[in-house]
Specification:
The structure holds two protein chains of two kinds.
Chain A: H1 2-18, E1 27-32, E2 35-40, H2 52-67, E3 73-78, E4 83-85, H3 90-94, H4 99-117, E5 123-127, E6 130-132, H5 134-141, E7 144-148, E8 154-156, H6 170-178, H7 180-189, E9 193-194, H8 195-201, E10 206-208, H9 218-238, H10 250-259, H11 262-280, H12 286-300, H13 302-317, H14 320-334, E11 349-353, H15 357-367, E12 372-376, H16 380-399, H17 405-412, E13 415-418, E14 429-432, H18 438-451, E15 457-460, H19 467-471, E16 480-485, E17 494-499, H20 505-517, E18 521-526, H21 533-549, H22 554-564, H23 570-577, H24 579-593, H25 602-610, E19 623-624, E20 633-634, H26 638-644, H27 656-676, H28 683-694, H29 703-710, H30 712-726, H31 734-741
Parallel strand pairs in A: 2-3, 3-5, 4-6, 5-7, 6-8, 7-10, 11-12, 11-14, 12-13, 14-15, 15-16, 17-18
Antiparallel strand pairs in A: 1-2, 8-9, 16-17, 19-20
Chain B: H1 10-17, E1 32-39, E2 43-44, H2 54-69, E3 78-82, H3 93-100, E4 109-112, H4 118-131, E5 137-144, H5 155-166, H6 170-178, H7 201-211, H8 216-235, E6 245-246, E7 252-253, H9 264-268, E8 290-300, H10 301-306, E9 313-322, H11 332-344, E10 351-356, H12 361-371, H13 374-380, H14 401-404, H15 411-426, E11 430-437, E12 441-449
Parallel strand pairs in B: 3-4, 3-5, 10-11
Antiparallel strand pairs in B: 1-8, 1-9, 2-8, 5-8, 6-7, 9-12, 11-12
Classes of the chains: A alpha/beta, B alpha+beta.
InterPro entries (chain B): Thiolase (IPR002155), Thiolase-like (IPR016039), Thiolase_acyl_enz_int_AS (IPR020615), Thiolase_AS (IPR020610), Thiolase_C (IPR020617), Thiolase_CS (IPR020613), Thiolase_N (IPR020616)
Subcellular location (chain B): Mitochondrion
EC number (chain B): 2.3.1.155, 2.3.1.16
């Protein structure tokens, strides 16, 4: 026995020596009995992506496996814990110059995966970690899928979020595997599906439980175990001991029966198309093409489906929308890194002042990351409300089964609600989210500095008050910084960090580290009135008021803005932000920037505040908000206010399109001015801030990408036209003019 | 208290010569002895005990102990029982059983619960009472009746019933009743799952076995060993702690009924019970649901001697440990063993009889591997080196929970009595008892043979 084993290994040794293949870097394989175990492990990267090199090595390896008579089945597995294959290599697509070239990439992928699908030797995909995009397409081409049932293991088709489609057979295979409705849901939303859900959907065949530590660390042993289980199944598949046919549930059977009726299918396509049109407002081409590719495959057969898929893939990759979305993806990756280095001290104890909407929101995203958090408020009633908000946020996750009730309870134990400064002597960071009033901020800053240790960072959550003014009363201005969260904190991804000239690098590193831990996408900007985000929003809001005063009703304005790609209409946005807040900001920034921020009259907001129309929070703003009522109606009490402040519209700049561009160009111009003035460090941060914080249309990629893609000259022309009508608010800034003057100048090279 | 009888006789002399310590007696600390311990036969649930209530079994064990020891009831200062799944009508089952068994109504009794080490907790609570001078004589035991478990109405139904109780008018009652929905009637079963992780113990055991790469075959072989040794012990009459129990309306039960040595081929046919279809834990290599009760008479040594008893063993150092209830749920023995040895100043080689609770074959074998791993000791236990795994020839030689059965609340006393009886029979001095428990807890105790 031992002898024969030794001979076996000797033979393998000589065999591998005689093969003069180039050393493989992404893929290697070994043989266990008659099962080939193919291990994917891209060098120098945390994730595996389907790059050209990986693909060619994979094809090579598979050909060897198919040619080898000793091998009867194969297991595909990643050696990286936490990632199976994260998707296709975006840079590979970006380097393509034409749609035809991209189509060719798609066809290569299709061919490779078709060979897998038709393999007579069963192939088992052993999935641990993210299995997305091309990774999922590869997995569903295999004969069998086994996935680790942990939180890191997710399956999905996020291509749509990049403005493209699953281009390696995904649009053809997924509907067959999980049914048309579920496939549409996956491909049109790009949502991640956890392993247990994937099992129920029929996307994976078996689950493997993650293991605890044994004689090796947990992660290592779990992957090993996944491999062992996958090898067992591969053997049984090649021995025909288990069947590939899955038992379908009643609902599944009914659905697949219904889908066999052409009329039903047509109805479903129609329904889905309608829904997509309504949601994308025609701004995103990818979803409709996905529907089309699926439809072609089902109605006209596989070959037509593949052709349709690869062609559309090529077309989509060349669209501005896709370039914008991919740009955002890159920006997001960038803004998830701490370029200020590792802070000297890890923040373990956090204190938050003010248990309002923001304070409690910040607490919620901190406690669930294991940070011990004190939530302090001035009144018990305020504190109760804030604690309840945190509890509800966690409990909603329990209802969605993202947390167990036990996990909720232990997370909630990280929160201490209190009215005094007890325990602040241990705080590594204090975030204040008290009322937006400089005197109040000064008072709490002094109170805090009297009780916290020397290393403690003081961060101010404010949307407009200049940080240097807040820091002016500090004994240690190098420890003072701004953290501008967006509401609702647990849903909005952006965090804007504001540094003054006195803020130390370690302070910045520390708040960025905390922000990243809280799951935020972070832009770091210089201090100044309105920082970056509020400052961009303010001129647009000023224009909103003018447009309303010119007699456009809020509903129309909302539909104009949403049809341009903003997720929330402009009038609704004022209601959501809070009319009082908007008034504050308009007044403050109006003072700071003078004429350039003029437009509508702040009087409109003042009157609304005095009537108690504070927006959603008071139940009335431009609209009326009622609990449980879905379609909000206009607040008729606003008619009088609007009528009294009416100004005559200027006929040559008030077409629907003009209205849209008056809003957008002011936004874009101000954003570019922020870069010009050094408030922003990079255009990428400007784009991320605008899209993730303010809802700038993602299909445009952010103000900077927008200028790059659509041309600076066009924007300058628009601005000049409106400048002629309204003056200085529309004067293009120098940097924008520079870009218009030399078209080769781009914000992104 | 001083060492009264001098040093063990010839039978033990070989073992004694190599020990790290001659005895574990400590100056100024009372020696505590087990005078005797008994159990009613452990039966698979749903068999002869199925019509009874838990306190019936506990009472039978108490009566068996009284009969075996002839201890005057009024000498007993205190009674403690362990149990896990509580019958709500007799939540202090110790008291109900004691009253029923005819103990003085002046003898207090309480019930403890600590999952599978509940009886161990009952014993060590008794040890504490004696050591601190509160008591001289304690009866400790445990009971479990898995044939009947409390199945409750749903929370919604309970709430409606409670509100109905408070409703004053017919109108209020009708309005409450009108809110009734059929799903109120779906019952709530007692969970066999960890509350903190919602994972059943078998599932966790399967993952544990996989984490330590324990194969199905190894598990089946170990289970077969347990059943074979139990059968042999039963046939040879070594299970002397068993007392017969005349079940009302049925025949007298005289022996455990879960011992069923099978063959590896038969066992290999079984499908995995928890992780389907590829797991390794099956019905054959797991302990089964069991009904049973045990009771033990514990005394201060001087009291026992004064009463003319010949004690069976000393109860010496013990520890409780706890660890991650998710991934290390059943590793209690691994954590507890080196700790209790250190406390006692002994090493693994000093131990003559190991009695570990066998929840699952996979759990026992995983514990062996963990105890034998320097890596595990260093990374998870904060120890420099491994403690080493127990030699199999000294391990659970008369069967274990896999074969004899495992009434959750009663197993602890069985382990201690098995260790004590084995030491007497096999001629050893030190026994080590260890067990894992739900909640990620564990226990170990050193039992020292009473000199003959």
């Amino acid at each position: 026995m031992v002898a024969s084993r030794a001979i076996g290994s000797l033979r393998r040794f000589t065999a591998s020596r005689t093969l003069r293949c180039p050393a493989r870097t992404h893929i290697n394989y070994g043989v266990k009995g008659d099962v080939a175990v193919v291990r994917i492990n891209s060098p120098n990267s945390k994730v595996n992506t389907l790059s050209r090199e990986l693909q060619s090595e994979f094809v090579e390896v598979m050909n060897e496996i198919w040619a080898n008579d000793q091998i009867r089945s194969a297991v595909l597995i990643s050696s990286k814990p936490g990632c199976f294959i994260a998707g296709a290599d975006i840079n590979m697509l970006a380097s393509c110059k034409s749609a035809e070239e991209v189509t060719q990439v798609s066809q290569e992928g299709q061919r490779m995966f078709e060979k897998l699908e038709k393999s007579t030797k069963p192939i088992v995909a052993a999935i641990s970690g993210s299995c997305l995009g091309g990774g999922l397409e590869l997995a569903i081409s295999c004969q069998y899928r086994i996935a680790t049932k942990d939180r890191k293991t997710v399956l999905g088709s996020p291509e749509v979020l990049l403005g493209i489609l699953p281009g390696a057979g995904g649009t053809q295979r997924l509907p067959k595997m999980v049914g048309v409705p579920a496939a549409f849901d996956m491909m049109l939303t790009g949502r991640n599906i956890r392993a247990d859900r994937a099992k129920k959907m029929g996307l994976v065949d078996q689950l493997v439980e993650p293991l605890g530590p044994g004689l090796k660390p947990s992660e290592e042993r779990t992957i090993e175990y996944l491999e062992e289980v996958a090898v067992t199944f591969a053997k049984e598949l090649s021995d025909k001991k288990i069947s590939l046919k899955r038992d379908k549930g009643l609902v599944e059977k009914l659905t697949s029966y219904a889908m066999s009726i052409p009329f039903v299918r047509q109805q479903i396509y129609k329904k889905v198309e309608e829904k997509v049109r309504k949601q994308t407002k025609g701004l995103y081409p990818a979803p409709l093409k996905i529907i089309d590719a699926v439809k072609t495959g089902i109605e006209q057969g596989n070959d037509a489906g593949y052709v349709s898929e690869s062609q559309k893939f090529g077309e989509l990759a060349m669209t501005k929308e896709s370039k914008a979305l991919m740009g955002l993806y890159h920006g997001q990756v960038l803004c998830k890194k701490n370029k200020f280095g590792t802070p000297q001290k890890d923040v373990k104890h956090l204190a938050i002042l003010g248990a309002g909407l923001m304070g409690a929101g910040i607490a919620q995203v901190s406690v669930d990351k294991g940070i011990k958090t004190i939530l302090k408020d001035a009144t018990l009633a305020g504190l109760d409300r804030g604690q309840q908000q945190v509890f509800k946020g966690l409990n909603d996750k329990v209802k969605k089964k993202a947390l167990t009730s036990f996990e909720r309870d232990s997370i909630f134990s990280n929160l201490t609600g209190q009215l005094d400064y007890q325990g602040f002597e241990k705080a590594d960071m204090v975030i204040e989210a008290v009322f937006e009033d400089l005197n109040v901020k000064h008072r709490v800053l002094k109170e805090v500095e009297a009780v916290v240790p020397d290393h403690c960072v003081f961060a101010s959550n404010t949307s407009a008050l200049p940080i240097r003014q807040i820091a002016s009363v500090s004994k240690r201005p190098e420890k003072v910084i701004g953290m501008h969260y967006f509401s609702p904190v647990d849903k909005m991804q952006l965090l804007e960090i504001i540094t003054t000239e006195k803020t130390s690098k370690d302070t910045t590193a520390s708040v960025v580290a905390v922000g990243l831990k809280q799951g935020k996408v972070i832009v770091v900007v210089k201090d100044g009135p309105g920082f970056y985000t509020t400052r961009c929003l303010a001129p647009m809001m000023s224009e909103v008021l003018r447009i309303l005063q010119e007699g456009v009703d809020p509903k129309k304005l909302d539909s104009l803005t949403t049809s341009f790609g903003f997720p929330v209409g402009a009038a609704t946005l004022v209601d959501e932000v809070g009319v009082d807040v908007a008034k504050h900001v308009a007044e403050d920034l109006g003072k700071a920037f003078g004429e350039r921020f003029e437009g509508g009259s702040v009087e409109l907001l003042k009157q609304m505040v005095s009537r108690g129309f504070l927006g959603r929070k008071s139940g009335k703003g431009f609209y009326i908000y009622q609990e449980g009522v879905k379609n909000k109606s206009l607040n008729s009490d606003m008619d009088g206010i609007l009528a009294s402040l009416k100004v005559p519209p200027k006929s040559d700049v008030c077409s629907d399109e003009d209205l849209q561009y008056r809003l957008v160009t002011r936004f874009v111009n101000e954003a570019i001015m922020c870069l010009q003035e050094g408030i922003l460090a990079t255009p990428a941060e400007g784009d991320i801030g605008a899209v993730f914080g303010l809802g700038f249309p993602p299909c445009l990629g952010g103000p900077f990408r927008y200028v790059d893609l659509y041309g600076a000259q066009k924007i300058v022309d628009r601005l000049r036209k409106y400048e002629a009508a309204y003056g200085k608010p529309f004067t293009p800034c120098q940097l924008l003019i520079d870009h218009a003057n030399s078209p080769s100048k781009k914000f992104y090279q | 208290v001083t060492w009264v009888t001098g040093w063990p006789l010839s039978g033990l002399s070989f073992a004694a010569q190599t020990k790290s310590k001659k005895t574990l007696a400590k100056p100024n600390i009372r020696n505590i002895v087990v005078v005797e311990g008994v159990r009613i036969p452990f039966l698979q649930s749903g068999t002869s005990y199925k019509e009874l209530m838990p306190h019936d079994l506990a009472r039978a064990a108490l009566l068996g102990l009284l009969h075996r020891t002839s201890v005057p009831k009024d000498v007993v200062d205190y009674i403690i029982f362990g149990t896990v799944i509580q019958e709500v009508k007799t939540s202090n089952v110790a008291r109900e059983a004691a009253l029923g068994a005819g103990f003085s109504d002046k003898t207090p009794a309480h019930t403890v619960t600590m999952a599978c080490i509940s009886a161990n907790q009952a014993m060590t609570t008794g040890v504490g009472l004696i050591a601190s001078g509160q008591c001289d004589v304690v009866v400790a035991g445990g009971v479990e009746l898995m044939s009947d478990v409390p199945i409750r109405h749903s929370r919604k139904m309970r709430k409606m019933l409670l509100d109905l109780n408070k409703a004053k008018t017919l109108g209020q009652r009708l309005s409450l009743i009108s809110k009734f929905r059929l799903n109120f009637l779906s019952p709530e079963l007692p969970a066999v799952a960890e509350f903190s992780t919602s994972e059943t113990m078998g599932h966790s055991a399967d993952r544990l076995a996989a984490a330590f790469a324990v194969s199905r075959l190894d598990q089946d072989e170990y289970a077969l060993r347990s059943h074979s040794l139990a059968k042999k012990a039963q046939d040879e009459g070594l299970l002397s702690d068993v007392v017969p129990f005349k079940v009302p309306g049925k025949d007298t039960v005289t022996k455990d009924n879960g011992i069923r040595p099978s063959s590896l081929e038969q066992m290999a046919k079984l499908k995995p019970a928890f992780i389907k279809p590829y797991g390794t834990v099956t019905a054959a290599n797991s302990s089964f649901l069991t009904d049973g009760a045990s009771a033990m008479l514990i005394m201060a040594e001087e009291k026992a001697l004064a009463m003319g008893y010949k004690p069976k063993a000393y109860l010496r150092d013990f520890v409780y440990v706890s660890q991650d209830p998710k991934d290390q749920l059943l590793l209690g023995p691994t954590y507890a063993t080196p700790k209790v040895l250190e406390r006692a100043g002994l090493t693994m080689t000093d131990i003559d009889a190991f009695e570990f609770h066998e929840a699952f074959s996979g759990q026992i074998l995983a514990n062996f591997k963990a105890m034998d791993s320097d890596w595990f000791a260093q990374n998870y236990m904060g120890r420099k080196t491994k403690v080493g795994s127990p030699p199999l020839e000294k391990f659970n030689n008369w069967g274990g929970s896999l074969s004899l059965g495992h009434p959750f609340g009663a197993t602890g006393c069985r382990l201690v009595m098995a260790a004590a009886n084995r030491l007497r029979k096999e001629g050893g001095q030190y026994g080590l008892v260890a067990a894992c428990a739900a909640g990620g807890q564990g226990h170990a105790m050193i039992v020292e043979a009473y000199p003959k």
